[in-house]
Amino acid sequence: QIVPRVLNLGFLVSFLGHPVTSGFTSGAAIIIGLSQIKYIVGFDIPKSERVYETVWNLAKDMHKLKWMTMLLGLCWLAFLITSKRLSKRGGKFALIGPISPLVSCIAGTLLLFWRT
Q1: Is the pTM of this model over 0.85?
Q2: Which of 76, 82, 45 is nearest to 60 (CA)?
């Protein structure tokens, strides 16, 4: 990654078609999202090279779901999405977007220490 950056080879991506770039980005987003879902549902999901196997393992083990973990994760996700939308309004809400991930990390850390 360093050598192409030093040689300014990023322009080569412009020769790829938009569907190729869009498909690659979408595929990466799905894989990253599925790898992070275990933190919201509260149990480990066996890794697989195939997306449908990961989804099947998730559906098969839903009886292991930890409701409090899921509720807290969904609340945090809703907070981050809402703060991003509020920051797009501008004005007095402009700083909410950049600060909200920091606030959620601090609040999560404090909640963790309070719980233990």
Answers
A1: no
A2: 45
